[in-house]
Design goal:
Shape: globular
CATH class: Alpha Beta
Number of domains: 1
Bound molecules: pyridoxine-5'-phosphate
Length: 237
């Protein structure tokens, strides 16, 4: 049964809209944990557009479950991660102008800097995950980098419209999960998952955890965060 990681970036987006201190993503993390989230995910972006340094410092301390810090491999962010020591770091590509993380990390092309970052984080006792496209070459490079976990990018699957197209991307996720498991990697998945499609991805054999943010935070506007988390948890089970 896959675990649920709840990404709270967009609680911080709302806070930053007025530049004050509410709503507090750390309190949201606490509520999500109480409602059954297995881990909390937050992305400290280089431009600090939503999550702030103070948030990741508090989230690393004690939220009663795993804290998964999404991050680029920029030296400044790596330093912060090594200092605050989250339970897990998920390395993602980052572009300044994007609305959200657009594609997977190209571990094949950026093998040397990525594997240096993996080693640096692992030396500080942090588990490392690489956010990659569902592609065999990327999985192989992730394995060689000595990351223990991969997160398969589900964005293309989530956005695909005609059923045939969706099915093609779904098969990629299934095959990539199977391949990565034969390499001994833990396989997570995320991006663009919602109440309509998360169940299907949760059903892929070998998936360890789904990381979901936007759809849960959107639903929480209507029904509250704890209920939005509970509904997602029921769905992926
Ligand atoms: N996983 C990763 C690596 C991400 O970058 C994001 C977006 O921050 C998510 C999961 C969550 O995506 P969404 O907000 O679309 O559910």
């Amino acid at each position: 049964m896959p675990k649920l990681g709840v990404n709270i970036d967009h609680v911080a987006t709302l806070r930053q809209a007025r530049g004050g201190n509410t709503p507090d993503p750390v309190y949201a993390a606490f509520l999500a944990r109480c409602a059954g989230a297995d881990s909390i995910v937050a992305h400290l972006r280089e431009d600090r557009r939503h999550i702030q340094d103070r948030d990741v410092k508090l989230l690393s301390k004690d939220i009663g479950g795993a804290f998964n810090l999404e991050m680029s491999i920029a030296p400044e962010i790596l330093e912060i991660a090594c200092r605050i020591r989250p339970h897990q770091a998920t390395l993602v590509p980052e572009k300044r102008k994007e609305l959200t993380t657009e594609g997977g990390l190209d571990v094949v092309k950026r093998f040397n800097p990525v594997s240096r970052a993996v080693k640096k984080l692992k030396n500080r006792g942090i588990r490392v995950s690489l956010f990659i496209d569902p592609d065999e070459e990327q999985i192989e490079a992730a394995f060689r980098s000595e990351a223990e976990i991969i997160e398969l990018h589900t964005g293309r699957y989530s956005l695909a419209e005609p059923a045939k197209e969706k099915n093609k991307f779904f098969r990629q996720l299934v095959n990539s999960t199977r391949y990565a498991r034969t390499r001994g990697l833990t396989v997570n998945a995320g991006h663009g998952l919602d109440y309509a499609n998360a169940g299907q991805v949760a059903g892929i054999e070998g998936i360890y955890e789904l990381n979901i943010g936007y759809s849960i935070i959107c639903k929480s506007v209507y029904i509250g965060l704890p209920e939005a988390v509970r509904q997602m948890r029921r769905l992926i089970r």
